Amino acid sequence: MILRGLPAAASPPRQDLMSIFRQASFETSIAKPSALPPADGFEIAFAGRSNAGKSSAINTLAGHTRLAYVSKTPGRTQLLNFFRLPCGARLVDLPGYGYAAVPERIRLQWGELIESYLKTRMALAGLVLMMDTRHPLTALDRQMIGWFAPSGRPIHILLTKSDKLSRGAAQATLRKVREALAAHGHGERITVQLFSSLTRNGVEECERVVGAWLAGTPGAET
To answer: Which of 134, 158, 126, 151 is nearest to 48 (CA)?
Structure first.
């Protein structure tokens, strides 16, 4: 897959896919679309419902305990946080969505920021969307897919906290999510896997998929 609409210079050199997220470093945070940094390379967006384990997943992938702040209070991430990866690409941590205790004005602001970024950022190579394995494909998850899927760029879903379910139950959830996406015509564009920050299950699979996006080659089958 060759991503259309990206500057030719944006494609980073190939590297060991197992080290894509390692040694990521914080670059900047923004609160409004007008403050976005120059698009000087591919970007991978990470999104998810509040308390879906997004920050834990990012830290696990990066091999860093506090790269993304982990809080027991959902809705804490209020900005778009940019992290530079060793390959030159960026990891972009989006605000968690769906936390009811956040004032309506702030939730609308977050929604506008996320929607604008996903719909207009030409540097985006793909979206990694986190969902709690026990509560996948909520209305807001589907809204996120609806914002990004029309771009034609790939989405990879991490069904997080898979260790909370038995192996059989987790596999059944994985199958149901894939079937639901296929029924809505997303079967080829959206890939899905199980993931656990606690056991590190799924780390290598995620790295393979995202690595293929950055290399400009078709994603791995999942």
So the answer is: 158
